[in-house]
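Example complex used in Figure S2.
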Amino acid sequence: MGLALQTTRTEARALVTARGSIDLHSSESLRGCLVELVDSGHNEIVLDLTAVDFCDSSGLNVLVRAYKHARAEGAALSVTGAYGRVENVLRTTGLDRFLIRQS
Amino acid sequence: MTTSAELADRTWRGWMTYVAEASELLAGTLDPGGIVALTAQIVVPRLADWCVAYTAESTSPAYVWHTDEDRSDALKELLAVEGRPAEGPPVPWGNTDLACTIPLVARGRTLGVICVGRSVKFPPDHYELAEEIVRRAALALDNALLYAEQKATSLALQRSLLPPGLPDLPGFDVAVSYRPAGEGAEVGGDFYDVFTCPPGPDGEPRWRFAIGDVCGTGPEAASVTGLARHALRILSGEGMPLPDVVERLNRLIIDEGPRGRLLTLLHGELTASGALTLVCAGHPLPLILAPDGTVTEAANPQPLLGVIEEIEFTVDNLTLRPGHVLFSCTDGVTERRDGDVLLGDADGLETILARCAGLSAGAVAAAVERAVDEFSAEPGHDDMAIVVLRANG
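Predicted assembly (496 residues):
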């Protein structure tokens, strides 16, 4: 398992492509990555979860904190590509309302 | 040809291995009694003929170990008569023995003493080695005592986070189950509650129940659990409607600031006639099991608590008909893992429940617990709570 993160930056926008599982062991690296992007002034951060197969409550905690941190800094954080378990957990926790951008 | 230097070197290596192995054995247990017994068995027979351990709390020996088991009782009597040998290098004691007492001191605390004795000569390096072993034993014992203390605190805290008992719900069968993760030295974040609330305007008896999961473990999570459980009872006592209670709790958690934690919560109200009102705030959805084995989701998902202040919660209204079961659990059940597969994958929980048609609430809870246990050979690492309500009939 584990989690690999790849960041593509274009001006004020940043796309983070995650691959693997977001859990107790890997959520810290995701937290660091998202916080760094907010703090370095990106005002639109998108986390692509297409290649993520699992996200536990510590992962949700990171997403929520990063979302709130971004909002406090006037930036927007959203997730895209969630499917299966990850889509399910975002739906049951109601986080889809905040984190998934309505197109 | 072996020189005396080589011989000494070999002996020295032998003792180093002995001390290293002793340390490893001592580090491998967190049971204070086990460490005392282990120390005696490490010292005897390599360094001494007998070893007696005393804890700081008692003047009678906690453990007696003699190479000649038949002489253990005589040794105990001798200790009672002669008193313990003096501290420091071994001196004649009793009739023939050379013996000494080595205090078990770790981090400035005296935890007890170890007395050792030999019937023949006691080489000085053996005494030094015994001291070394006892020093390591004292550290291991101190760790074990601290661990036991932490475990007791956690258990007490954990118990305080669960209700003292369940009310009687005439016409309904209620079962709850809670299982902490691991060894129980750390408080988990799962909780449940079932309590009577003031009757409605029509005087009909009502009860409320809750099952929740605070993100994280340890005292920080426990304080949010305590806040949640007490807030639910107090606000219910004031007659506050269910969605308002959940909204209020959400604000309370956010007001905790950085100390706040995410909370997923299923909060419900049940009346004597079976009217069921639910608010499912980010929690695994409760399921209804019908007598024919059909399983359906009982509520709509709403956001978990502790994230955003401005959320209005709505209720799901349904009726718990006779023979129907409401099943709710925490993600310790659905996220039980076997390799890459989770119990909740592909409606796994629904499939387990479907086989429970006709069972009592307790039997349903037990069947799911068993399914969780059998799902993987690996021990679970998450705590788990289950609340089952069944309308009789």
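Residues 57-72 of chain A form the longest helix (16 residues). Chain A touches chain B through 18 residues (CB under 8 Å).
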